[in-house]
Fold this protein.
Amino acid sequence: MDPRMLADLLLILHLLFILFALLGAILLLRWPWLLLLHLPAIVWVVMLELNGWICPLTPLENRFRQAAGEAGYKGGFIDHYLLPLIYPAGLTPEIQQWLGLGALLINLALYGWVARHWHRRGTP
């Protein structure tokens, strides 16, 4: 497979993982078993952001882009629209910590909502 295509696919998977970590608790209303996947995902995202770690998907994507002969993120829909969501300009450790705290607060609110819904329905 073309390294550029692999990098784009990895970018899409990265974005989907972020969306799952942020909003995946909503899916628990339909599929409660996803709790087993969502809790580790949100713990990973919060720890990553609060500690200033780099997601291992980022260097892997960059290696694919370099293998494709790219120096940066330019061109196409994916590069123009999705990259700024995952890699915002001016990201500092302080902003990264606020993002981690925001992810945690969003999920605490969603889990509270899901728990109330489960309690009313009598389901896990």
Residues 3-121 form one domain. The helical segments are 3-23, 35-51, 57-67, 77-86, 93-121. The chain has a mean pLDDT of 86.
